[in-house]
């Protein structure tokens, strides 16, 4: 079979000139590049996670040409860049605690660790309920091909999948029936009982698309792209005949299959995206590209493939689910707030390191720096470690609904949720007063941090991609910090390879230091609070449209979720 690309085009490689300086002591922030060297590269991740759209702000307005003179900024640079705790904190969170599927045992263990860690620094933190969610504990998974030959397969049980209750379950491997109508599927479904059903189309090749472009014969990549698209369309017909997405979790139980086998290849060797749903009713597993294709070929050629599965999973019930809220109370304006925002939950195919463990560590370390060097802020500083983001921004949406006083009093805030890379863009969103404020704050930041950043102009409120959307839709100015990609979308986003070793610590140190500095600078800003918004702004299609604010309701229970 030939290799096919799902991208539909060539890969994008982003390069940025290194920032640096000379002639400064280790304790003095260097003068960074000239403003012209600030990057134009796009941030990694998905829409709504960075600075938004709108014409760029001239970087000469905010990138310094001299070292900063504020002693607190200098001390924060020294602490954040030369005495960072990010690596030690990350090792505990990603290795020892591990992935943090919403309301799982690891999610709850990690929240206890957050509260304890903050307490060790003299910071008040608490778990704050926002609803209930299905609590699930992952156990070991073993999936073996036992005929026509023996091979242990690389497989991951999807989140919230039932297990096999400690038993070995064996069965034949078959394809999802090649049905054209629901009637065709009903007629074929009886033959699926007790079998493992492959419910994804095959990948024509498990080689990276970039290799087919580089090494393939003339036209190979184009031919393979066409073949992959044809396979996907043909397979979609089978899925629709089985009832489509609305019926995907019910028919396997009704039919009595032994298990469902899927694949969600990221187009990089050995990397799969691993999701899951509490609506699953039979053991459901993702199998990596190479092993899934093996099973597919054996089943397609009727060569008698059989599997043995032993998978452990424990459902602990619909239990209360929490955010973690840390707080340093303001000494002069306690009813004005600066919000440090990052979702804490993750999918659990890997360790949830860059989505969004690095955002969590950024805010955790940022508050540590602030507590050490600026312990008595004028305004109240809140860190929100939100839960249930992956199921629809539920933790942050619930917080916004439950705390209108905070929403009304937010002076500024920062959300980071697109990987380990250094921050390279920020924008005011729809808030008319924010551009000048952001310019004035960034101008006080050392240029080897601010010099990477491109600042966008006024834009629509953030979409549903991450938690600053929960605040912006309520007309509360929490801004997205867009990060350099580090191939986030394909390598680590929701994958089985999102682990500690993918963290770029010099970038993570940069981000935590930036957050601490911006928070300090916003806190000492005497400018009156304003949530005024523009009447219109550019959307992601480049059209000028009216600015609108519309907050979807938080989903506060598993039963109420559509996911």
Key phrases:
single chain; 563 residues; alpha/beta; 14-stranded mixed beta sheet; 21% strand; elongated; disordered N terminus
User: Care to count the β-strands?
Assistant: 18
The low-confidence runs, each spanning 5 or more residues with pLDDT under 50, are: 1-52
Specify the biggest β-sheet: 14 strands, mixed
Structural class: alpha/beta
Estimate the global geometry from the Cα principal axes. Answer: elongated
What do these coordinates show?
With 563 residues, the protein is α/β, with parallel strands linked by helices. 30% of the residues lie in helices and 21% in strands. Strands 1, 2, 3, 4, 5, 6, 9, 10, 11, 12, 13, 14, 15 and 16 form a 14-stranded mixed beta sheet that branches. The protein has a two-stranded antiparallel ribbon with strand order 7-8. Strand 7 and strand 8 form a beta hairpin. Helix 1 runs antiparallel to helix 16 and helix 2 packs across helix 9. It starts with 70 loop residues before the first helix and ends in a 17-residue tail after the last strand. The N terminus is likely disordered.
Secondary structure: elements and pairs:
Layout: H1 71-82, H2 86-97, H3 105-120, E1 124-147, E2 151-152, E3 155-157, E4 169-175, H4 182-189, E5 196-198, H5 209-215, H6 220-241, H7 251-255, E6 259-262, E7 265-268, E8 271-272, E9 284-287, H8 289-300, E10 306-328, E11 333-343, H9 353-373, E12 379-386, H10 394-402, H11 404-409, E13 410-415, E14 423-426, H12 434-442, H13 447-450, E15 454-455, H14 468-472, E16 478-483, H15 488-491, H16 505-523, E17 536-538, E18 544-546
Parallel strand pairs: 4-5, 5-6, 6-9, 11-12, 11-13, 13-16, 14-15
Antiparallel strand pairs: 1-2, 1-10, 3-9, 4-10, 7-8, 10-12, 14-16, 17-18
Helix pairs in contact: 1-9, 1-16, 2-9, 9-16
